[in-house]
Amino acid sequence: MAAGVAATAVLAALIAGPTSATARTALPERLDIDLATDTGAFHGGAAGSLYGIYGDGVPSRNLIEGMRLRTVSTKAQDGPQHPGADALEILPPFVDARGKDVYIYMTDIYRGFPYQWPGANGPARLADFKEKITKQVRQVKTMGAYQNHVVYVPFNEPEGNMFGTGPWSYDNVNWLNRPEQFFAAWKEVYHLIKSLHPDARIAGPNTSQLFDQVKGFLAYAKANNVVPDVMTWHELSSPAAVRTSVAKYRSWEKQMGIGPLPINVNEYGHNYHLSVPGQVVQWVSAIEESKIDADLAYWNIDGNLNDSAVEANKGNGQWWLFNAYGQMSGHTVKVTAPHPNAQYTLQGVATLDTGKRQSRAIFGGKSGDADVVFRNVDPKLFGTTVHATVQEIPWTGQVGDSAQPLRLADRKAEVGADGSVTLPMRDMNEMSAYQVILSPGAAAGAPAVPSVSWRKTYEAENATYTGTGYSRNGPEGTPQDVGKFATSGTYNVGGLRTGSNGVLAFDVDVPQDGTYDLNVFANSYNQYGLVQEQGPTNVFLRVDGKDPQELRLPLGYKWVVWGHTDTTVRLTAGRHRITLAAQDPELGATKGDAIIDKLDLSLRDAVVRPAVYEAEYATVNGTQPGYTHAGVSGPGTVPLGNGASTTFWVHSPADGEATVSVDHLGGGLASLAVNGEKANTLAVGGTGKGTNTVKLFLSGGINKITLTGTSGAPVLDRLRVAKTQGTLKPTIYQAEEGFVTGAAKVTTARTFAAGGRAVTDIGKGKANALTLDVTAAKAGRHALTIRYSNAEQAPATHYNPDPVARHVDLSVNGATSRRVLFPTTFHFNNFWELSVPVTLRQGANRLSFTADELPDFDGDTYNQHDQRSPYAPVIDQVAVTPLSAP
Question: Which spans in 327-390 are helix H?
């Protein structure tokens, strides 16, 4: 019943040593990377999102910047299509997080799909739309320099609604058959926008695919001087169609003497693909090869970067894939796949940065074996010895947090006589993506050990089930049914629910004594009847019938939306039976209903606990890595001259203290900042080789750690990060111990709140508030870690669930309040944590939590569809922690 293999076997051949291509006789499938064939500057355009940002903080700016999000398509400001995602509210935080352009779907000012534009006939409807366009453009013009990052999208899939057939169409005639009305409307709207905003960029026609009729649209647009500034369409098809469509469109441009225009394929991918690194990397390779922008499709909830973000500040495997993609630089090089342009096979993209003397490749989509071959490795850049780091980016589910990519192998390799290096990848997982970083290796230090020394996957459908209620569900998403969600092994198991006596037993076999990480991949649909009563479904874990643990399984916005619940188990070498049960004689009974996908077991006892982040692999600004220092970690170092910086994207499993060790070779000093906050610590570095150890508060999920040279030129080797406790001690304040006023009250209905009590009904006016008095030992910056729940959901018009991000207006000591958004936790009895930095004075401080319904952009109207909540989330407790130690 086991699937997967020991981590040390995944790349056994690589660990033994890469070989030259000519030394092999019988090759498995081969991904060929030709470093001598330049295919253009790295673009990064696949990192785009439709409705992926809800508002400032959902998701966090860390997630946006760390994903290198380039474009966002979103609704018109105050549009009633979905909660949040208002164009002008997401514009500043997106641009400030290094985003490029926000594409405004101007049609999303209307409710429903097809769009419900009012009017007795086509001309009346178009007149109403033009009034709304005028208002939208005037609002954009108030945004100062941010308006330069706006692209207007006047129509969306016009062939399916406004200029298609049906009760909400212009004249009940599809423009694909008779285009005159759409063409005339395009011309009117184009000139209207340009008259109000002469420098505006306008995108279109934004069809659901690249119809052949779009060629006629181009001819009309050229003849009437209304050619879009950006060409847009959707590819809800395949990566192969991306390449084919872009090539077809470019041929039309050449025929007509247009462009070349920028292209944004502003919807791509299906449920089966999204969240799965091994699937999405196939799309990324096609999009990057085509040098266009593209946005992940919006099938589910907004504000989670299209199933990349978890909670407010955590990333899943897909987020880490885009983080790896965004770290690429220089120029792309030719990649030849074993089955070129064929989906569900091994595909990839690779770059060469001559300044960094570094090549990166990301690839995936295949289970089993393959060779990754780097050809024409330039000895002037790399020498005759290279250093190869190989990482895996696993699938962790749509709502499952992921740590940084797993290091599978790290070592030196001699370049073959033919100028090539072959990396034998063995036992790959088609749901994972993989990254290889190639650098000069002559001075590289000792190889780093793998992140995990052993791991296996056990599929639930192969486990033994006893008792009542069993169901084997599936197949779920497949290449033939891409509307369904991906599932490990394509099947899952149900039966652990209220009233069941079911037991799901996994027989495991482990290689040695140790403490093993255990991840239960599971799902409960938050709107399902049995789940609504309690929220998270609880089940009971035992090992060989002993050591019971109660686990709360993750909720999702639909069935088959996977997350994972994590724990540890102590195992001796040999066979064991791990059970998940709906009843336990010591702990109680299950409430709810859950499905189980798989168990993952992994052993880390033999691995150094701190996570290692090499400076030469981080994002550098104003400097370049060097590869001449012997005895360092990894292949090289980064010198930080005055003002030069290196940024690391560091994972923390939870909010709280971490020990960050900065290994350096001396040469000067550097400052250190975490999530934009300068650490309260002495500068790191020195006159000679050493390590500076600092205690820092890290937010759960993704943290941005930046070191900036301040004097001399400190040479940075790496960061080592480990969760610790004892220095930055949190002080916890239960919400019910504060002061509640007005309608705000203490509730005992949220049983998973600490102590069974929390404060609810904050908001709908400032009189209904929570006030907490907290104490700070020293003045300065602190983290407020708010434990909260929020399950408000607006009425939806179609397939997207529409959860609402509630907000708090947080005031410290009577100062102007700061608005904080809280994403859905899927149930009011499901509590998450969100940390907010604040400045506290020494001694007593007063925190005030209020909320009220937010008006529309102009401040005089309100949403009519319950999409802007007047309430704050339920607040359980607040922890106060210094951001850093002195």
Answer: 379-382
| Cα 663 from Cα 456, distance rounded (Å) | 33
Q: Supply 568's token pair.
A: 């540890």
The residue type at 100: K
CA angle 459–461–466, rounded 5-degree value: 115
> Are 102 and 150 within 8 A, CB to CB?
yes
Q: What is the dihedral of CA 309, 310, 313, 317, to 10 degrees?
A: -60
Residues 6+ apart with CB under 8 A from 340: none
Coil vs helix vs strand at 361: strand
Rounded CA gap, 351 and 35, in Å? Answer: 8
Is 54 in a helix, a strand, or coil? coil
Residue reference for tokens 């926000």: 102
**What is the reported pLDDT for 447?**
85
Of 667, 672, 704, give the one whose Cα is nearest residue 685. 667
First to last CA, the chain: 52
Which neighbouring-strand residues pair with 421?
374
Question: What angle (nearest 5°) sits at the alpha carbon of residue 200, between those of residues 197 and 205?
Answer: 125
Separation CA 696–CA 853 (nearest Å): 36
Burial tier of 291 (Cβ tally within 10 Å: 0-12, 13-18, 19+): middle
Q: How far is 301 from 636, CA to CA, in rounded Å?
A: 42
What 8-state DSSP symbol labels residue 283?
Answer: H
C-alpha 344/C-alpha 310 separation (Å) is 26
Q: Is the preceding omega at residue 260 within 30 degrees of 0, hence cis?
A: yes
Question: Average pLDDT per run of 10 along the chain, which is 886 residues long?
Answer: 39 44 62 98 98 98 98 98 97 98 98 95 98 98 98 97 94 96 98 98 98 98 98 96 97 96 98 98 98 98 98 98 98 97 97 98 97 97 97 98 96 94 96 98 86 95 97 98 98 98 98 96 98 98 98 98 97 98 98 98 78 96 94 94 97 97 96 92 89 96 98 96 95 98 98 97 97 96 98 93 97 97 98 98 98 94 95 98 91
Residue type, 800: N
Strand order in the sheet with 546-552: 464-466, 503-510, 574-581, 538-543, 546-552
830, 791 contact by CB (below 8 A): yes
- Helix ranges, 227-375 (H): 239-256, 277-290, 317-326
| pLDDT computed for residue 446 by the predictor | 83
Q: Shortest CA distance to 753 belongs to which of 625, 661, 873?
A: 873
Pull the structure tokens for residue 163.
């200029």
Smallest Cα–Cα separation from 317: which of 275, 289, 259? 275
Token digits of residue 576:
């064991």
**Residue 49 to residue 70: CA distance in whole angstroms:** 8
Contact 801, 557 (CB under 8 A): yes
For residues 506 and 601, what is the distance between their CA atoms, to the nearest angstrom? 11
CA-wise closest residue to 68 among 314, 423, 305, 332 = 305
- Answer whether 802's CB lies under 8 Å from 868's CB: no
Cβ-proximal residues to 46 (8 Å cutoff; 6+ apart), any chain: 283, 284, 287, 288, 294, 322, 325
Phi, psi of 879 (to 5 degrees): -105, 140
pTM, entire model: 0.96
**What does the pLDDT read at residue 269?**
98
How many whole angstroms separate alpha carbon 346 and alpha carbon 219? Answer: 39
* Cβ proximity of 431 and 394 under 8 Å: yes
Q: Which tokens go with 155? A: 């129509």
Q: How far apart are CA 600 and CA 517, in angstroms?
A: 8
